[in-house]
Design a protein that fits this description.
128 residues, mainly alpha, Rossmann fold, two-stranded parallel sheet, two-stranded parallel ribbon, 4 strands
Length: 128
Amino acid sequence: MIVDSSAIVAVLLRERGFDRLLEKMLSAESLGVGSPALAETGIVLTARLPSDARGILARFLAELSVVTIPFGDAHWRESVNAYRRFGKGRHPAGLNFGDCLTYATAKLAAQPLLCTGDDFSKTDIEIA
């Protein structure tokens, strides 16, 4: 399963519905997250937590054995394709920049995506 930044933030900040997300993470055979999503997650947590956002994120990833997926040539190409097909102002899904990067990660990994909100459900990505 690929994990979107939104799901990690929701769990770490105990946002509404975090328990369902955490349960899915704990029961997954494997967990992966794209390196761009990790950068986004770290930035969001730094803005919202009083201290040690990087440490909190690193411990969470280690405890759940989340694998970081490097973002390569095929990923940027699939991200552009995602924007062309599902981007904001082009499609009801309205994927933003970060969403397109996560879409590419899940698409190329051929794994379902764990996320919050409903934008990804309007694409052809399988939702976890």
